[in-house]
Amino acid sequence: MFLFVNTYIMHHHTRIGIIGAGPAGLTLALLLQRSGIPCVILENRSRDYVENRVRAGLLEQNTVDLLRELGAGARLNAEGLEHHGVILSFNGTRIRVPFDELTGGRRITIYGQQEVVKDLIAAVLSKGIDIHFEAEATAIEGIERTQPSIHFTQNGESHTLSCDFVAGCDGFHGISRKTMPASSYREFRHEYPFSWLGILANVAPSSEELIYAYHERGFALHSLRSNAVSRLYIQVDNEDKIEAWPDERIWEELSIRLGTEGWSLQRGSIFEKSITPMRSFMIDNMQHGRLFLAGDAAHIVPPTGGKGLNLAVADIRWLAEALIYFYDTQQNDLLDQYSSNCLRRIWRAQDFSNFMTRLFHKQAEHGSYENLLQKAKFDYIGSSQAQATTIAENYVGLKHI
Questions:
Q1: Domains of the chain and CATH, by start
Q2: In this structure, are strands 149-154 and 2-5 parallel, antiparallel, or unpaired?
Q3: pLDDT tens digits for range 113-165
Q4: By CB distance 3.0 to 4.6 Å, which of 20, 240, 258, 370 could disulfide with 364?
Q5: 212-230 residue pLDDT tens
Q6: What do you get for the CA distance between the two ends of the chain, in Å?
């Protein structure tokens, strides 16, 4: 809502100021709009940039259900690839974990995060929600007062957005967490001694389901983005450079690490390569005063468990419920519980992501004590329905945490 303009700064007001137009901020806006709560989204990048930024592509059952509920599921329903299980491999020996059988019909859906963002932006605009692209938040003030404000610049002009609450959905490098008093939270960081080299290739997937593979040469993952585009990863050293990995070397290494008797990896033209360090990060408090953090602003997990986008959406479920309850009752109970409600799921996701990362990555010499412990854990998945169920439940997303 536009209020007034002076010579230098344009002033605006809304109830909820949302910083960041990723899955978290966009989902929050749609949930608030459905309950009649005005909000404004500020995104420092262009619309084209955020709609084409390649990120994760694994959606938990809860995430899929919410996108459909919000009216952003039409393309997802048409193009998303449902997976009813996952294949785990250890030096060529494979185990399949059947999701449907072990979780009462729950599953995952492969659908690129950039496609999710496109669908959410379209839904946001169709409902008349105010979203500003190329609007960089430069400061957040007054979070301990009843009406904080976000200062931002757009088209070379200075603006101030006053609001009742600020939702910081602006990622690890955003301004929101930096605004939290350093004394209000503790940080937890873990850097893994390896990275992922990821590729996108124009080739049909060689498997109908994802393959996680431990190999004595290192980890590999066979994933996909569509029936014509494959997404694959290999473990590399943190010091490795893309230039050291020509296409032929990548395909050869993938074929070795993913290989098993009677199966072959199909090759195609690689159109994207990147190296991503494996790390975990989180803070133990996601709110201060009238500022609330969600998604990567508060936590990062290694992609081995496919939890990043899904954790962000889970945060937003709690935040939206708390804000809606506040405006209905003028009570702060759920707002005060926001961090503790989110952290139960975040710690569970951190543990699962760490488990999957340690199980399938080479961390010690083949045949060593540590390596044989990895093999024992892998074998237990194949012999214990309880262990397989634990993996399936965590992978498709827990219903209630």
A1: 2-76+113-188+281-351 (3.50.50.60), 77-111+192-279+357-396 (3.30.9.10)
A2: unpaired
A3: 999 999 999 999 999 999 999 999 999 999 999 999 999 999 999 999 999 99
A4: 370
A5: 999 999 999 999 988 999 9
A6: 36
